[in-house]
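Collaboration report, partner site 2.

Our partner group contributed sequences for two proteins of shared interest, and the home lab folded both. The records are reproduced in the order in which they were received, starting with the first partner submission.
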Amino acid sequence: MLLRLALRGLTRVSPRLAIKAGYLWVWKGMRAMRAYKRRVKRGELFPPFLFLALTDACNLTCRGCWMHGASEHRQLSLEDVAGVIREGKKQGANFYTLLGGEPMIYPGLWEILETNRDCYFQIITNGMFHTEENVARIRRLGNVTPLVSLDGPKEVNDARRGEGCFEAASEGMARLKAKKILFGVATTVTGENFEQVVCDEYVRRIIDAGAMYLWFYVYRPVGVDPAPHLCVSGERLVELRRRMLTMRRKHPIILIDTYWDAKGEAVCPAARGLGFHIGPGGAIEPCPPMSLAADNIRDNDGDLAKTIGQSGYLRGFQKFVDDRTRGCVILECPGELVDYAQSKGAKDTSGRDIESEFRAAEPRTSHHLPGEEIPEDFWFYRMLKKRLFFGMGGYG
């Protein structure tokens, strides 16, 4: 597997883009983690990575999307984004995940990428805007890795995202592949598509499409149409973990999850302070689906380190999670989560009524499964979990 993965990397990714990713993403990411660990020892809070929701506007209305349903569209200004990245760089943070909504329709996207050539950007996109022109821009810049959202084969994907989405995304990925761009696929695992996506056939399809990494997410029932029947059961989560370990040994593609560390124990990145989410209104939220915030990037005259470092809400969130689970509090204790947020003065930043949504939600099993932990059994992935992946050493 490793030889085939290396061969794919050498032949499928442009050498220039691979070198830039190695320096901007991997090397600088590891430096960011070292800086983060030093801050932790000093009792300071600032993440090594940040998520920026540039806009909540999108050309799709996917089922279970936490951005859909706001009464009016919001977006970060270019000044807001520049300020966040400037403040992040001061703390050694040079990796930013851009999402939405659909970040590819944000009018200032290319200016952000162009003016921050010393940073690396992962763009989570529905994949429908990879035109020849945009793909050429991505290749020229070299500091971008698109992460295309697909939820399974055509009929499965389009049932959640809309008719024609699979075909459009596939055409875009073909252009990315032809230009030898480093890109990945993000797949949301649900109770309905489990067998179609957590299997060898699906992984082979993603490899054939040209992706170098496949990122599995587990469905969260949020938004105006939460569709709780799409949740993944505890038994299926254990099976997901087991199948991932098997597929990691077989296929020449990096299979990523953010749920378990090298020992197979559950992880909540937000509870570790590894990455916070900046909403389209500037709110600083623990993670993307959790639209509850007490702080904004414009507080303290834009001094982001001061705002995050002094946030009782973000600091308290770590203890709130640790007292209850190693997993996801959105799934396990949504009502308590709202109570905690309100006790810290946090407000609903969803543009809908997420507090009512969470209170109405039924507690469910998350990836924290005591007694069912399955450690990584492949040295290569143990190393990746400890040194790379999301966290760059935060999962060791």
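Second partner submission, folded after the first:
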Amino acid sequence: MKPRKSAKIRPRKRSKVLVVVGTRPDAIKMAPVLRRLKELPELRVRVLGTAQHRGMLDQMLAAFKLKLDHDLDLMTPGQSPERILSAALKALPGVYLEEAPDLVLVQGDTVTALAAALAAFFMRLPVGHVEAGLRSHDLSQPFPEEMNRTIIDRIASLHFCPTAGNRKNLVAEGVSAKNAYVTGNTVVDALEELRKQPRPWEDRKLKSFLQSSRGKRLLVFTCHRRESFGAPMRRMVAALDRLVRRRKDLAAVFPVHPNPRVRACADALRRSRRLLLCRPLSYNDFIRLASGADVILTDSGGVQEEAPTLGVPAVVMREKTDRPESVRSGHCVLAGTRTRDIVRRANALLRRKPRPSRRNPFGDGRSARRIAVLARRFLREKAGRI
């Protein structure tokens, strides 16, 4: 009797993950996830960029040495959220058909993330949401991000929550607890990666200003949110002006967002040798700058996560925050948008440095690893391998 031929072992098909990015925060927070996903041999990882923010996205891709497999190049002058959404929804299905991903991974609450999740939903593709569960419980703050992330979380099959509070929000909204995981925020991973590889200053104007301002207290100011446009932003900028004029011991840097409405507010500032208005900084320069600050004034969500990681106190110029952990831990204070209140809070932090919790509320720098492992497990189960 002839021996039976051994059956050929077919190579296991690799599951495909399509990662979608469009803005500066997307690239920053997805970079560590992409690295971890690519370390898993059973996964094939592809990257799609919408270029919702063309220049700022390209800047971050270069900083983290990332390349796009698909570039929709959607940004146009004076674009609106609805224009980006409609253009992305028109372009994404073609890429999805070409790639046939097993999982679409989106980050945060941008229009890019919303469009990618909606397009995947219409094509019955599972979605994983990095930075899931953030809530202010007010659709106007932040606008339109609160609505964007709420819809994404209704669509997603996998929810990667930065904090236990974020997971609690999702469960309260009816999301299955077994699909929501507390991973930490990947911005901590990104920051730790950059800090291990210090680089020289890229903006010469900034470097020169900091050299001439030695011995001064350093204030870093950022504002860009849509709900801040108009009177709130004018009050924020007025607070910066008042602080610089009244405190001779202070030097301030204001990286001005390219949005014309932000630039118009910045242009109204009275010039001072102790105030630098500069173009948006590379992430390397911004983190180096923020690391050396005595206080940060911001309406940014991301800076509320970066400040605790860097150990720098921050005044949050918003009426409500979707990151209450930063306030509860003592790293940030919520000031609202009135000039007087912002100035008072900033002066208080400059007079007496707070003693925040030593524990970073946004994680330990291993968030991306957890997300990659959970995504792999989901795909194994989807393929019937477990």
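Feedback sent to the partner group on the second submission included the following. The chain has a mean pLDDT of 92. The chain has 15 helices and 13 strands.
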